[in-house]
Amino acid sequence: MTSSPAHRRLLPWSHDGKPAVLVTDGTETFLSRLADAVEEQQIQTAAVILGLAKPMVKGTANLSAHELRWIACRLVESLTDVLNICESRGRRIPPYDEADKDDE
């Protein structure tokens, strides 16, 4: 019996501040679909936060320190989520074949 290669996926949530990883044989699972849905929601949330932040940081905006801190915190949260998604998806991209490097 041959074992399938393990596919590791960084999940878009953590446990006690530690990264959560899904290890599968590469087939779609309930948990992988849930992770896809959470990632999509995080990306949509980041887009909304960016839309809110743009007018708040214009030179003509008159915001209090509290308001600026609030939007800065939301931007940091969103950027953290999006970078986590990028790292997770980047890990799932297969490396280039050696033959591809020789063709260059």
Please tell me about this protein's structure.
The structure is a single chain. The chain is an alpha+beta fold and 104 residues long. The chain is 58% helix and 15% strand. The chain is built from 3 helices and 2 strands, in the order ββααα. A two-stranded antiparallel sheet has the order 1-2. A hairpin with a 2-residue loop joins strand 1 and strand 2. The longest helix is centred in the last third of the chain and has 28 residues. The model has no long low-confidence stretch (mean pLDDT 88).
Q: Roughly what fraction of the amino acids lie in strands?
A: 15-25%
Which stretches are poorly predicted, pLDDT < 50 over at least 5 residues? none
Portion of residues within helices: 55-70%
Largest sheet entry:
2 strands, antiparallel
- End-to-end Cα distance: 39 Å
Strand order of the largest sheet: 1-2
- Tally of contiguous helical segments: 3
Order of helices and strands: EEHHH
Structural class: alpha+beta
Query: How much is the radius of gyration in Å?
Result: 19 Å
| Average of pLDDT | 88
Global outline:
elongated
Number of beta-strand segments = 2
Question: What is the element layout, followed by pairings?
Answer:
Layout: E1 7-15, E2 18-24, H1 30-56, H2 65-92, H3 98-102
Antiparallel strand pairs: 1-2
Helix pairs in contact: 1-2
